[in-house]
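NADH-quinone oxidoreductase subunit K
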Amino acid sequence: MILEAFLLVAAALFCIGLFGALTQQSIVMLMMGLELMINGIILAAAAFWYFLAPAADGQVIVVAVVTAMAIEMAMGFAVVTAIYRAKRVDMTDSATELEG
């Protein structure tokens, strides 16, 4: 494949994630949109590293970023689950009014 194809897929992932993050009211769907945006950025970075400087350093960084992203999303889902169990709030508008 060529670099342009990878960048096209990365841009599509980012745009779909941006649309999902801006239009959804559910906290889980918002987080899924953010996940797609981050995946698009990671794909573009990995494609640039592969085609412009094909060394193992870029691949190691991509693996580290994907691992950190997975941990971050797991923690985010844990926080959302805790908020839902405590206050029965699953929409972003209701979550802004939480106190204490």
